[in-house]
Amino acid sequence: MEYVDYYKILGLDKNASVDDVKKAYRKLARKYHPDLNPDNKEANKKFQQINEANEVLSDPEQRKKYDKYGADWKHGEEFEKARQSQRQQQYSHSGSTYSEGMGDDDFSDFFASMFGRSQSSGSRNQARFRGQDYNAELHLTLNDAYTTHKQTLTVNGKNIRITIPAGVEDGQVIKLTGHGGEGINGGPNGDLYITFVIAPHPVFKRAGNDLHTTVDIDLYTAVLGGEVMLETLSGKIKLKVNAETQNGTKIRLKGKGFPVYKSEGQFGDLYVTYAVKIPTNLTERQKELFKELSKS
Fold it and tell me: I need a labelling partner for 86 at 20 to 30 A (CA). Which of 70, 98, 111, 139 fits?
């Protein structure tokens, strides 16, 4: 198995902390993401290597095995079990007994026989092992998450077309079975775990399945009443403003919020807070009118 230097891929040294790994991964993942490099095969390959490096180095147990066993780190546990078994065996030799164990120097020879590096055609069957699981981030806008849509991911040079249901949440993880690393000696493939990262929206704030926003209204509309238009994620809606609406008044629009995940036709609510804007740069005549109004 070819040795891959995960530290070098992320631009880190072996003393890097978990936070260092996380920061390096996020920075490089954004740079080499397939959506930003649709026709760049090298960038796509780099993106896969970055994901693999992050998965290993961000997991303390996997990182420990990787640091100890190098190229064969995925099968360190098998080696340890075999070594312990050898040490426990007792052999009879010249009327006495002795125990024979495996040292770290036997590691390569162990895998050569265990996984077929130098096995002859007449040797015993090779052990099968499940492939490595992969982790990846998929960045979406709030508008993307609002509707069910399809996206194409590139994993190990293969394009995977997935359907993203409306209503996915920031930080939500889905599993694509069998789309991880290839199995060893005919073993099953690993799985691909995708974490959704949803960017903040400039107008709407999401809270579960509800949406919150603030709408500015002028003083005259707040006092006399009227209508304002609001551009939502699903189109424009007309809001009725009651006369004498106070600053900070909140209204609820039932069913105008975010779609409920995998529940077709169900939506949260939209909460609108009115912010009354005081007029500025008044003319002298306008100021006089306000003075008259204040005296009445």
Answer: 70
